[in-house]
Design goal:
The chain has 250 residues and is an alpha/beta fold. It is built from 10 helices and 10 strands. The protein folds into 2 domains: 140 residues, 3-Layer(aba) Sandwich (Rossmann fold), CATH 3.40.50; 66 residues, no CATH class. A hairpin with a 2-residue loop joins β1 and β2. The longest helix is centred in the C-terminal third of the chain and has 18 residues.
Length: 250
């Protein structure tokens, strides 16, 4: 379990995060959702270890890792721009990290991931010849072969459309289930958060506005900000969202 206890962060006297406290269970998919400037990327960086909190604790598997370096936490991230090596083909991108830690994943495990992410027919292609969805799957595979304790995703679907986006959503859910892997996602898209996650953390001005299941957020939004931010942004797609969670929109 990952536990955040009263996480605060200030920059030059301005408080960006104002006491964030949540628990994330093993194998859960949690989305951090909020408008620009709400603190979601700062919180992701604190969990990863890129940024130190000004106050509060990060507890992972009952150990305080607040002051543990990013390298020693064993978490890993897939960035929005994928950060793939253009001079390497898909396969060599996937196994790149194993050069320094060769015993992390076996060849058989690498091959299983390639099949899980449906990359077999693209494995010898240069990165420039891959679509956005294929690049995203290569980036996921490259991260997963390193067996992260927690997988962090920064706007993983923002550059994808339609069927490709839905396919990547399904892959992420399958990965969480098959590996019992905790996945934390930063997104600005309410539909993405509500249809992908077990729980959604909604931030507003550095505070927790609501931390609940998607159904609870749809059925019982805790305040007017939730209603405006979530429901208004989903106005075109409300019927799909409400149908998904067994409700109706009037």
């Amino acid at each position: 379990m990952l536990r955040l206890n009263n996480i605060r962060k200030s920059y030059e006297g301005t408080e960006i995060l104002k006491g964030i406290s949540i628990d994330v269970k093993d194998g859960e998919i949690v989305s951090i959702l909020g408008p620009s400037g709400s603190g979601k990327t700062t919180l992701l960086n604190i969990i990863l270890g890129i940024t130190d909190p000004s106050d509060g604790q990060i507890i992972f598997n009952e150990k305080d890792i607040t002051n543990v370096s990013m390298e020693k936490r064993g978490f890993n991230i897939v960035f929005q721009d994928y950060a793939l090596f253009p001079n390497l083909n898909a396969y060599n991108n996937i196994v790149y990290g194993l050069k320094n830690k060769p015993n992390t994943s076996t060849k058989e495990e690498v091959e299983e991931l390639i099949d899980l992410l449906d990359l077999r027919k693209h494995i010898d292609k240069n990165i420039e010849n891959l679509s956005g969805g294929q690049k995203q799957r290569v980036a996921l595979a490259r991260t997963l072969v390193m067996k992260p304790k927690i997988l962090l995703l920064d706007e993983p679907l923002s550059a994808l459309d339609g069927v490709i986006k839905e396919s990547i959503k399904d892959r992420i859910k399958q990965i969480a289930k098959e590996f019992n892997l905790t996945i934390i996602i930063v997104t600005h898209d309410p539909e993405e958060a509500l249809t992908l996650s077990d729980k959604v953390l909604i931030l507003n001005e550095g505070k927790v506005s609501q931390y609940s299941t998607p159904k609870e957020i749809i059925d019982t939004p805790k305040n007017q900000f939730i209603e405006k931010f979530i429901l208004n942004q989903l106005s075109i797609k409300r019927n799909n969202i409400f149908t998904l969670f067994g409700g109706s929109y009037a």
